[in-house]
């Protein structure tokens, strides 16, 4: 596949009917294709794949192609090429698809566990559950339950962005505010200053707890993704020792 810099048939040149002789390069490419029993892979896109980009004397040709043999056609019966514009080149770009679209992965329902610590989480769940269709014991109950959870997921994601977005920065800001309140208490010891410090301390502990839960879950998910690699590393380290 690629730029063969030659056309294979006359209709692959926009001005072929104005040419007086058949180009030698065209004959050579035809001989190669015939000798090797090649054929063009089925494809989508414009016939012409190259343009000289001239306003006067405009020429378009099919110079790019995907040639396959019988073995390929037997092994990859559903394969096809796609020729599409790329913007930055006088040639179309090309990609090969080897078959039908891949089935979508069925992802499990999951969310950041730290979110349950937020006071607004349970009321939100209750309001959603009571406002949607009730579930009864039946053969389709589990399916309808999964659909209900899936429909609820956008609300959880929105709450997660609002409450846990920029969590690291929020933790730093809560600590900085606590330090400011502590300094105020020491410089001007009053009951109000102490109350402000106590509130700031509770806020910092709460945000810190959320961050800790979030990082624990994140590290656990990362471990599950790379556990095979970790096992190999530990096994190798044990052998070295």
Automatic annotation (TrEMBL):
SUPFAM superfamilies: DNase I-like (SSF56219). InterPro entries: Endo/exonu/phosph_ase_sf. It comes from the Eukaryota. This is Uncharacterized protein LOC104753440. It comes from Camelina sativa (False flax). The lineage of its organism: Eukaryota, Viridiplantae, Streptophyta, Embryophyta, Tracheophyta. The gene is LOC104753440.
